[in-house]
Amino acid sequence: MELPILDAGLDRTHGDFGPGNTGAKVVASYDFVHDDPNSSPDLNIGAPYHGTAVAAIAAAETNDGVGVSGVCGGFGQTPGCSILDGKVLGTLSISQGLTEWLGTTDCAAAAVNWALANGGKVK
Ligand SMILES: [Ca+2]
Ligand SMILES: [Ca+2]
Predict the structure, then answer these.
(1) What is the 64 CA–ligand 2 centroid distance (Å)?
(2) For 18, 56, 87, 122, which has the most beta carbons within 10 A of its beta carbon?
(3) What is the pLDDT of residues 89-113, one digit of tens each?
(4) Strand, coil or helix: what is 85?
(5) Domain that holds residue 38
(6) What is the pLDDT of residues 39-69, one digit of tens each?
(7) What is the pTM (predicted TM-score) of this model?
């Protein structure tokens, strides 16, 4: 099952998203804030790893001795959820080192449509 995580982007190198920090559980990603395929979190915000934490709670590998166990992380021969990483929260540089938080309803709506088109279930 593909589980959409529509948040601030996630750090694929976190050990709970695939063996060897491969991020293999992340099957698709898109940055709707900056309109590009790199959904890495923006590090100049107060909680840059919020999306990583949310994704880990939902889908971290279970019983692997790494990090945490996600609610939909799988167990034994039962596969866990794959992740659709849609970044809808981030920042945009405006001038003189200042940044603006972005998280528009347009981004969220586009991300929901993207998630549905990529096999995600949205209820
Ligand atoms: Ca990006
Ligand atoms: Ca784990």
Answers:
(1) 5
(2) 87
(3) 998 877 777 777 788 999 999 999 9
(4) strand
(5) 2-117
(6) 999 987 777 899 999 999 999 989 888 899 9
(7) 0.88
